[in-house]
Every structure is written in structure tokens, then in C-alpha cells.
Amino acid sequence: MFHQIFIRKADRHSQRFLFRENPRDAPEIYLMNVAIFGSTCSPASAQYVKNKNANEFKELYPRAVNEIVQNHYVDDSIESYESVEEAIKVSAEMRSIHKHGGFELWNWLSNSNQVLIGLGEPLPQRIKKFTPDKTSDYDRVIGMLWSTHEDVFSFSIEMKPEIEALIRRNERPTKRQMLRIGELLTLTDVENWRWVPSKQNPADIATKWGKGPNVVTNSVWFTGPVFLLLTETEWPKQVTLSSPTEEELRPCYSHKSVQFPTRIVELERFSQLNRAIRAVANVYRFVEILKQRTSGQKPSAGPLTSEELQKAERHLIRETQWQSFPDEMVVLSRYKLKPVDEQISIGKSSNIYQLCPTLDENGIIRVDGRIGEAPNLKNEVKFPVILPNKHPFTVLLVDSYHRRYRHCNPETIVNKIRQRYYIPTLRIAVRRAAKACQWCRIYKASPKVPRMAPLPLARMASFVRPFTYVGIDFFGPLAVKVGRSNAKRWVAVFTCLTVRAVHVEVTHNLTTESCIKCIRRFICRRGSPAEIYSDNGTNFQGAARLLKEQIDQLAVTFTCIDTKWIFNPPGTPHMGGAWERMVRSIKTAVELAYNNNRRLDDEALETFIVEAVAIVNSRPLTYLTLASEEHEALTPNHFLLGNSSGVRQPAMETTASTRRILEKVDKGVSPYADQTAEMVRRSKTSNRRGAGVGSWRRQKK
Questions:
Q1: For residue 483, is it left (φ>0), alpha (ψ between -120 and 50) or beta?
Q2: How far, in Å, CA of 482 to CA of 499, rounded?
Q3: Ranked by mean pLDDT, which of 17-31, 103-117, 444-458, 487-501 comes out on top?
Q4: How far apart are CA 482 and CA 467, in angstroms?
Q5: Which region holds residue 241: left if phi is over 0, alpha if psi is between -120 and 50, else beta?
Q6: Gap between the Cα atoms of 615 and 609, Å rounded
């Protein structure tokens, strides 16, 4: 049925799959045009299409449409009818409806052969199977087993492996399996339970005594306690000790009525404190307008005043304190107007006992201190308001300060709040507000650095010459002067992925032909690489295409025709970081040549580029401590030139001791030494610049 349902073109990409006939070929991408088995959405799509197709025949076949919509699941259904004629009629209508949608119904089953004959279905042939399978003569219908011959439904129950293992005595039962008390309570009556001494209880063998039960067939674990073989009168009886009750203990409850202030708004429904305060102020304004209209006065109009907003804020503070400190509010309110010597302090078990709380003229609890007579401090600074830590009002208050000071340093917010309010563990509340702030979560989030992938084979190759695995990239253009005009030049950077050495070639443009010539010059100087890595530049793609088309002609030029060119996927510059970093190093070294907007010619540019390469190739590849026994760090030039700078060691000065050493060496020279000296003298006569061992030998003679 699934393959009869077409998928929208926009949704077909969710059913991509790869396929190739030859394992050596690159896999090709295919899209399934129809619904497939195994897809989560296929049953739902099939159900929708099936119902939509059926609803088109709702007026023509109402009974069949109702059966399809209500009793069909995908392409399976089960119905019951009063007569054979009704079954044949409705089934034929359902077959016609499904056929109109491209769905062919087959494999009909019925407990009446007349229905099958009326539908044109073959009669079932019963074959006796000599197998232990009890369901061999049953047909499966939507999770049930149906014997059409006997018209009986049955279910196949498979036993869990752990239960089967317990029954076969292959495993030791776990504690969870032993504590299935709920099943015992439903199958037995507590009045039929009898007491068993702990020493004779087989259940305690698995949990208390020894290393576990004895699983022998005739052990107590399987046969039960020994006293079960005796008469019931000889079974052990539990002795209950009854203690006489001298007095009757009755629970005593004390009730205390506390009148909370009217809750005007639900703070949980507000995201900002300013909105909650204005909502409460509007309620007070509305009540005041009703009072004014009742007394015949002119109602107040205009925006909310500062006094109304302060009144609303005080109401929210009182409501918060009554909800968080009800006992303290009752004690402080009851003895507020009494003399100081008659006032009773709150209990020591209170969380705010050590703050010496006091109630002000507005019915708000404040911290009482010793700086009440300070003339230059505001009253709210001398006596800050006490607020709970996690109350919705406190959360909105801290969030308002967090927004007011532009999501700044938490210590700034703590300092500002402490000037008016006392909140326990204030710093935790401030951090909680910053963590819940959506702006901070977006703009202050630090990206999660992914784990670095394993190095590719080209970076781990050993016992290969330099530039066997190469990454190539271009940078530029660089302006040069050609006569009286200016021209552009680009630089091709070849990076050895194994020893991290660099080779450069200057190109006049970024065409494919220029790229091929550049690679040929590189191969002539460094040898043919095994693999070349690059990004998806058009010049690289063209070069790879021409290399593939002209492989016969290039085989004569290249020393190795097995060079493999690997392109990075589009839009992944990070995959070329190994050579992109070398491009940056060379550009940094070349920038000095272009200071003050100087114009270089081709020869000067090539000189600067080569000198920059020499600097980059002399960089250390490893970190060398000052206390290391090695005097020189390993550099790419060690692999290319034998040492870090490529300069040979200066010759020793000719002293008396060295002359004697050289004379001894001359005595051991082969008979061809004189001929060699003569060849050196002749070469010196023909070339005035000759110097070295030959000239020294002539002076010696």
C-alpha cells in the first residue's frame, strides 16, 4: 500500500539514499518518490490518503465509507456483519472504493465460505501440520489469531526471557523479582496468611542467611518449611504481647487564623516588575474612581502618578512578606502600637530573627540597625526591606535591576539592591536572574568547542620524502611594475602535510593553464606528490579536469602519474587549515616588502617571496626548553636542507696543527690524487674564480 502513495516533491529529500553497483564507483544519490516501509511517517500518510479517498464516496456508499474510516488500519481491517448478503455487499463496495484510489484488496478471510465465493476469493485449504506450533491452523488478523474454521479468536503470549529462566531454574532470582507483593495481594487474602519464624522462612535464605539458597530439587527453597508436612495444629504460632493501656492519648490541635492582604494580581503571570506594579496601580485607580463616582466627585484621569506607583509597590511588598513570613507579620503587627517594654520579639526559630525585624508605618518589615540617627542617609538605606530569596516578587525585582543596569557586572547589581532591600543569598539570586535572562543567554553564550577529529593519513605518513602529500592554495593579487605599467601576480603556496615545509611559485594569473604550469614547476623542483589537497576553486577543478584528460601527455613530464587530487567539500574552509595557516605566515613575512606603497618588479617580488619561505621553513616544529640537551630545535629545513638555516659550517683556519693533519691525510690519498690535482689546476687556469683545495695543493708543491 505504501508504494501506491506518492510523496510531494518538496518532501522527497527526506527519503534520500545512496547506491552504487560497483564498490569502486562513487555512490549516487537517489530519492524515493513513494512512501516506503520502515519510515515513521508512512503509516500516518497511508491512513490519511485512505480516509481522504473514502470520503469522496461518502454519499454513494455511506456504510462502506464508515467501515473504511472507523475499522481500517492502513490496509488491514476486521468487520462483523449480521448476514452473508450484507457482508458481500459492503465488502464489494469497499473493494471498489479502494480500487479507485489505486489500492487492491486481496487475501480476504471469512468464517463463511459463501462470503469468499461472493467476493471471488479461493476457499482456504486446511493442511494438517505435524508441528508443536499451536497456531499453525490460525490466521493472523491485526495482532490476533483467528481460526476461521472454528470461528475462535486467540492470542499468542510470549514469555519474557528472565521469567522463563526462573521457571527452568537457570538463574538466581533478583530482589525485584522477589518483591512482587502487588501480585500476591491481588491473588490472595491477608486472612489466609500465616506467620513463619525467620529461621524457618525459605525467603530469608536468599537475603539473610549464607551465600544464597540451595537450588537442589529437594531443598527447603523448593519444598518449603518442614512444618508444612505436619498437621496445622503443630504449625508455629506468633506470640503477641498486649500492653495494658492506662490512659487514653488523644491528639490536640491548635489553630491560628491569619488574615492575609488581598491578592490583587498573580505575579507568576508577569515577566517584568514594572508591568506588575502598573497593573496593581491601575486596580487602585479603578477602585478610587468607583469611590469618587459614588460620592459624586469627578473621577481621576491622566497617567498614573508617582504616588500611585509607590502605593502599588508597597502593596506587593506587603503581600510578599505576608506569604513568606506570616508568623512574624502577626507578632509584629499585634504589638506594633504597644510600648517598647511590652513588645514581644519573634521566635528564635524564625529565619529573620537575627535581623532584628521591625514593622514600619506602612506595615512592611525592615531590618533594624544602629544607624537610625545617621542624618545623611535615606530611611530605605538605614532600614532596608526584608524580602525572601525565591519569591516571584524577588525574582522580578532582581530581574528589573538586571535590565536597568544593562546586564552588567553582577557585583554592580548586588550593590544597588543592597541599598534598598535585604535579600538572603543575594548573589545567588543575581546569578539566577542572569542565567534566566534570554538576552544574556544569547549574547553572552560561549560556543562549545567540538572535539578535534583524528589527523588524516597525510599528516601521519612516515618514511616518505617531503612534499609527498601536498596542500595547495593561492593568495594575492600582488601589484608589480612592468615597465611603466602595473600588473598583478599571485602566489601559489605548496604545503607539505607531513613535515610542514612550504614551497611557493609565482603565477601571472589564476587560469587553469597557469595552475598546470605552476604545478609542473613544483614537480620538477620537489618531485611528484602522491596526493594533492585543495579547495573547490574553479582553477583547481579545471586543472584536475585537464590533468585527467591529458594524462598521457603529462605522463612524460611528471615523474609519477599516480598523483591523486582531492578536493575539500564546498563551504568547508576549515578543512584546509593546514595550508591556510602557512599562507598567513608567508603573507605576514611579505607585508614588509609592501610598506610605504612600494612597487616591486617581478624579480624583486620573487626574491621577497623566496626569503619569506626561508623564514617560514626555519621555524621550530617542536618546543625546546632552555634546559634541553639539544642545542637546536627541529625545523622543516632539517628535512629539506639538513639544518635549520641551510648554510654550511665555515671551514677551519689553516694552522700548523691542521697542516700536519692534512699532510698525513695526503699520504693516504690514492694514486689518483695527482691526477685530481692536475684537473683542479687546469680548471683553475680556465676559471679565475676557482679556489679551495686545488689552489692550496699548488702552493704546497
A1: left
A2: 37
A3: 487-501
A4: 33
A5: beta
A6: 10
For residue 628, pLDDT beyond 80 = no
User: 429, 350, 440, 434: which is closest to 393 by C-alpha?
Assistant: 429
* Cα separation, 459 vs 576, whole angstroms: 12
Please, which residues bridge with residue 504 across strands?
493
The closest alpha carbon to 197, from 231, 237, 234, belongs to 237
| 159, 165 contact by CB (below 8 A) | no
Q: Mean pLDDT across the chain, nearest whole number?
A: 78
Residue where the block lists cell 553564550: 445
Q: For residues 394, 396, 398 and 401, what is the CA-based torsion angle, rounded to 10 degrees?
A: -140
SS3 of 506, please? Answer: strand
Give me the DSSP letters along 364-431: -EEE--S-TT-TTS-HHHHSPEE--SS-HHHHHHHHHHHHHTTT--HHHHHHHHHTTEE-TTHHHHHH
**How far apart, in whole angstroms, are the C-alpha atoms of residue 634 and residue 680?**
38
Where in 261-305 does DSSP place strands (E)? none
| C-alpha span between 141 and 395 (Å, rounded) | 59
Residues 67-93: tens digit of each pLDDT: 888 877 777 777 888 888 888 888 888
The amino acid present at 149, given as its one-letter code, is H
Query: Please, which pLDDT band fits residue 256 given cuts at 50, 70 and 90?
Result: low
d(CA 56, CA 62): 10
Average pLDDT estimate for 385-413: 94
What's the whole-number mean pLDDT along residues 39-58?
84
Residue with cell 512482587: 180
Mention every residue, 6+ apart, whose C-beta is less than 8 A from residue 305: none
Of these ranges, 33-47, 486-500, 653-667, the one predicted with the greatest mean pLDDT is: 486-500
φ/ψ of residue 554, rounded to 5: -75, -15
* pTM for this entry: 0.41
Which residue matches cell numbers 519464624?
A: 197
Residue 222 grid cell: 523448593
Instruction: Please enumerate in sequence order all residues whose Cβ is within 8 A of that of 559, keeping only pairs 6 or more positions apart, or say none.
Output: 523, 527, 528
Q: How far apart are CA 544 and CA 139, in angstroms?
A: 63
Grid cell listed for 464:
616518505
More confident residue, 224 or 439: 439
Q: What are phi and psi of 470, to 5 degrees?
A: -125, 140
- Rounded CA-CA distance 188/182 in Å is 10
Once rounded to an integer, what is the mean pLDDT over residues 253-271? 76
Topology at the third CATH level for domain 457-617: Nucleotidyltransferase; domain 5 (3.30.420)
Query: Which is nearest to 516 in space by CA: 489, 496, 541?
Result: 541
In the predicted structure, residue 260 carries a pLDDT above the cut 60: yes
318 neighbors 366 (Cβ within 8 angstroms): no
Residue 171 confidence class, pLDDT cut points 50, 70, 90: low
Q: How far apart are the first and last CA of the chain?
A: 106
Q: Is the pLDDT of residue 534 over 80?
A: yes
Q: List where CATH 3.30.420.10 sits in the chain.
A: 457-617
Q: How confident is the model at residue 678 (pLDDT cuts 50, 70, 90)?
A: very low
